[in-house]
Amino acid sequence: MNAVGINLALACVESALYGIFFVLAITSLAVIVGRHTNRSSSLSGRSCSSSSDRIWMSPLFVATIILFMTVTSHWLVSIHRTFDAFLYYEGGRDPMGYYLTVEAPTMVVSTAFVVASVIVGDIILTYRIWVVWDRRWTLIVFPALCTLAYVVLGVSVVQLFASYSPGESIFMADARLRIVTTAGLTLATNLYGTGIIAYRIWASNRSMKHDRAFSMVGLTMTEALVIFIESAALYTFWTLFFLIAFAANSLLEQFAFHCIPAATGISFMLIVVRVGLGFHWSQIAGVGLSFVGRRPSTVRKPPLAYPPRAITLSVTRTIEQETDYSLRHAPEFRSTSDYEHLA
């Protein structure tokens, strides 16, 4: 397939991915605002203006806004490039030449939005590592350094594209080394983040299975889905796809490269939606804990000294609030006050 066919496929696929991202982004913003509003209203003496200020201080809210702007901007530029290639560039007679012009202003701007989206994605992934591992700073040193290096090299790649001469290939030696190094940095961040987050979730669920109360609960499919979402595996796979295509000197690198913003956005919006809606093992934990909460009823008189429904609601809600920030090795039967300091 030539550059024209690949870019037409890119316009279609990126538009479809952007549609998915748009829905997830709006849902994410609604979820974040809703959770902040609910939490603020539950605190005495908290005003509406103070609640609004706290939303703007939320890392996930700010990251969602920035990612929405970069992904949307890149999609708009891609659509603009399609019209340019077939209608405006030399009267639409040479779309192939247009798509192979690396130094074209729209190509440079599009590349800048890709780099910006990846930077935001790597920052979110680093933040999630810090959150999932109970704010352990030592675990984010490596991804933070990789992200800083990517910022420097990413800017240099944009500058390199802007300085191309007509007719030069994107696979020239200087560009090849810089692009592969830049992609390798974000891939290292992705692999590290995916691995360490996946291990944390797997270890947590494994600890749950050792509890007798959870012995009958099957978590296999849930584990796989949660690990895929929480570890941003889609983001990692797509970055690897681009790196392989570019290393093979394939024009598919254009398709892979310019779909990175949408893939990044979808991956991290799924995390925000998962966190906001409480789609996690916390729901299963609530069921198991309600069972534990009923045990005293067999030995205490009267049997309904501790109403199961009240205990289930309290414990489930506090654990879901906790998983907004971190994962524990195994859920335990605790009172609400035991979790308040985690929020």
From TrEMBL:
This is Uncharacterized protein. Keywords: Membrane, Transmembrane, Transmembrane helix. The lineage of its organism: Eukaryota, Fungi, Dikarya, Basidiomycota, Agaricomycotina. The keyword Transmembrane applies. It comes from Trametes coccinea (strain BRFM310) (Pycnoporus coccineus). The chain crosses the membrane at residues 16-34, 55-77, 97-125, 137-162, 182-203, 224-249, 255-277. It comes from the Eukaryota.
